[in-house]
Design a protein that fits this description.
Layout: E1 4-9, H1 13-23, E2 29-35, H2 38-48, E3 52-56, H3 64-70, E4 76-81, H4 84-92, E5 97-100, H5 105-124, E6 134-139, E7 142-147, E8 151-157, E9 160-165, E10 168-172, H6 176-182, E11 188-190, E12 195-198, E13 202-207, E14 213-217, E15 222-225, H7 227-237
Parallel strand pairs: 1-2, 1-3, 3-4, 4-5
Antiparallel strand pairs: 6-7, 8-9, 8-12, 9-10, 11-12, 13-14, 14-15
């Protein structure tokens, strides 16, 4: 049976102990760390790369949602909360599941089984780890878990960027340069000063009179590639 690496993030020590005790009944779930705040949790997640995090939503200073938004790679998430209002939000962002405090044994068991099935299905796919990467976006009252592979365009808007995915758009306070540093350059290409495209979504490619390129995405957008980036794109794609 595949081992599932787990980190528990909760500002209440007794709550962390409760989850640790409950996990002892499941040999395939391996606890690799715990944290009591979002900053420590971020360092732990980026260092140890867990498969799953048990995450308290309401914590001092930074919430569980703030933590998720700060991560470049979001593992599977099971929310823990004492507040009913967050249970609804947890499902709105497509979390694996949520647990209400105090945790009931039967409910915990059902959540564990759901996690096993979901992670097992993902690992059986032929997708690469990069394709399975997700990020968390908080845009006003809206919250999304987004597979990176589903983002087809990233557009710079001063101190923000706007993401285009599925039939949705969302804003995030992250620069285009930051996106470039975290994305796979074999999948995402910066076509000019203000736009990055997912090359898997390119439908058509035409040369312009000035020697540059114009891209048409499968979603219908027509985008101009700068002269400098046109040369780079042609060289890397043998055009």
């Amino acid at each position: 049976m595949k081992k599932i690496k787990v980190i528990i993030i909760d500002d209440e020590r007794l709550s962390r102990e409760e989850i640790k005790q409950a996990l002892k009944s499941y040999e395939d779930f391996i606890l690799i760390g715990e944290a009591e705040n979002a900053d420590d949790a971020k360092d732990l997640i980026e260092t140890k790369m867990p498969d799953l995090i048990f995450l308290d939503i309401e914590m001092p200073e930074k919430s569980g949602f703030d933590l998720l938004e700060s991560l470049n790679h979001v593992p599977a998430v099971l929310f823990i909360t004492a507040y009913n209002q967050y249970a609804v939000q947890a499902f709105e962002v497509n979390a694996l599941d949520y647990l209400m405090k105090p945790i009931r044994e039967e409910r915990f068991s059902k959540a564990i089984e759901k996690i096993r099935n979901t992670l097992s299905a993902k690992s059986s796919l032929n997708d690469s780890a990069e394709q399975n990467r997700r990020i968390f976006i908080k845009d006003g009252e809206k919250r999304f878990f987004i597979p990176l592979d589903e983002i087809y365009l990233i557009e710079s808007l001063e101190n923000y960027t706007r993401l285009f995915f599925q039939d949705k758009k969302a804003m995030q306070r992250r620069s285009l340069r930051q996106w470039e540093e975290m994305l796979d350059e074999n999948v995402f290409f910066r076509i000019n000063r203000t736009e990055i495209v997912n090359i898997k979504y390119i439908h058509d490619l035409n040369k312009t009179i000035d020697g540059g390129l114009e891209i048409k995405l499968k979603t219908g957008e027509l985008l101009k590639v700068s002269k400098r980036q046109s040369v780079k794109f042609k060289n890397s794609n043998g055009i």
